[in-house]
């Protein structure tokens, strides 16, 4: 079979164009990407060889080798990992399978500066070779295939690539980069290459080797000395997996580089925790909390960020059984000493060891969050109770000094990025519900920033106040102008604003905090208990009695829209508002569900009217037709006030216009 030409998939061509045409601010990352791919290829071989040791052929020692030829201007990265068959080379190096990278290309704008920043966020793996090279040659053979089934892949990084069969005795992949201009000067230098590997790839668990060089003096008088290669290979990284090293031997920079390798995030993490856990099940955990939400956080298929190793052998990426889904933003590594090497995803779901690990990971992440939350608040909270269930090293918010975000601002940053995900835990993780509840923060009538904890709220509750009051709304502005708030404002009672979509669902699982019930002010009748004085109560009762005939009439006119009509004391400036019965979906939630195409049971809200409002008092002496018009306006306005739409908007407009033009009876 001879050479075949293939066109790159359109997205690849786009990425390549960007890589080669935009000034890449950080060209050296190509080496990190290629070494990381080489190490992954070795991990894959080790994993496949668990069931098929013959794949090791006669070279069981896995390593990555980097060499260069300054005269030919080439740099070579070679691994003896899994390698690729011809089909694999064409598919893996000519198309983009990863949804992340595909999303990346769909977001390209054509503006080089913006696109170059984007590329930084996503990373483009193998294609980063073309940042520095104008020609890339990949020679590879898949483990287990005969030497005659090697393949050579060549591309100039433009529209196409060539593939031809070759003899390739050694298993694995050799990538040769032909460096161009500046890049040749910059990178064809042993010292420079070593320093880059130390910076980015030191944590790689296999040896990364380079040819040993020695200083040789000039042979003749006046001839300059130079470095010459000795023909021996030396290992230039530590070659032990980072998480297996003692904490004291790992620098913040190394922790951060490892995080960036796991996450492809360019920013440092907010915090990490590294522990050896001993007890009924033994494992090492290294968990990171990112400082920024990934683009697919809300994607239901978002993969878990935990890599599973068993006794240092890589088993799988995205091991979702190791953390509950509400902590899906965490990246890290879990290395178990007890799980079998052939553990499958199915087995993971059922294993008791895995359950213990998952609980341990959950506690650890919550502990990190508590430490951050504590650093953010001047006064100590219960959050600093140390976790004694894990026998492990202490875990503070490690890595604090390495991040530009000040310690006391970290929790707010975390919460802005991931707070809504954390709330899912209220419904998902009953065992830790109290710990999660302590981590919640809200804006409120007393604070525009999302910073009020339930404990803060409780601490400043009014004398006689029996509940923690909150309101759910689509956004802060809607929450703040909600009619239901009026009485609370007047009495100076704090109300929490819950404006995340998940809030109402999540609050369905949190009925009390530290012995105090949580009460939505848009549900059920308000009972301010001791906060309402006797006079107000009397006035309300009198109003109810006096309004009875009006209420009866309103009920009759609005029987299709409202479940009930009653007078309320909760309103001050507004004529009316809608409430739902305790335990019912709020109107806002029902709207959200309907928008999402979910079936929502037909339910009618209760209309509450303010007997002190002129529009309501006016009802008392209206003739029937006007009464009906006003009643509908009153109801529709209450719907509008909470962000909904009247059932028949055109009829609403007609009615209001009639009133405005003094033509109400028409
Ligand atoms: N040295 C190698 N040995 C074997 N296969 C490789 C090697 N380098 C790349 N590949 C294959 O090419 C694919 C594409 O590589 P690329 O670096 O673009 O993406 P990735 O490694 O899947 O993603 P990422 O770099 O974001 O982790 C890899 O998934 C792998 O299958």
From TrEMBL:
GO CC terms in record? cytoplasm
A GO term, aspect molecular function: ATP-dependent protein folding chaperone
Q: Tell me which Gene3D superfamilies the record gives.
A: 3.30.230.80, 3.40.50.11260, Heat shock protein 90, C-terminal domain, Histidine kinase-like ATPase, C-terminal domain
The record's annotation in Pfam families points to: HATPase_c_3, HSP90
Specify the Histidine kinase/HSP90-like ATPase domain's residue ranges: 26-183
- Keyword Lyase included in the entry's annotation: no
Q: Which domain of life is it from?
A: Bacteria
Chief location of this protein within or outside the cell: cytoplasm
SUPFAM superfamilies per the UniProt record, alphabetical: ATPase domain of HSP90 chaperone/DNA topoisomerase II/histidine kinase, HSP90 C-terminal domain, Ribosomal protein S5 domain 2-like
Residue segments, region Disordered = 377-402
- Residues that bind ATP: 33, 37, 79, 84, 92, 98-100, 121-126, 173, 345
CDD domains of this UniProt entry? HATPase_Hsp90-like
**Which intervals of the chain are annotated as region C?**
592-666
Q: Where is the signal peptide?
A: none
SMART domains reported in the protein's UniProt record: HATPase_c (SM00387)
Region A: start-end pairs: 1-345
Instruction: Summarize subunit and interaction data from the UniProt record for this chain.
Output: Homodimer.
**Role:** Molecular chaperone. Has ATPase activity.
* Similarity field: Belongs to the heat shock protein 90 family.
Q: Which PANTHER family match?
A: HEAT SHOCK PROTEIN 90 FAMILY MEMBER
What name appears for this protein in its UniProt entry? Chaperone protein HtpG
> What organism, scientifically named, is this protein from?
Lampropedia cohaerens
Give the gene symbol: htpG
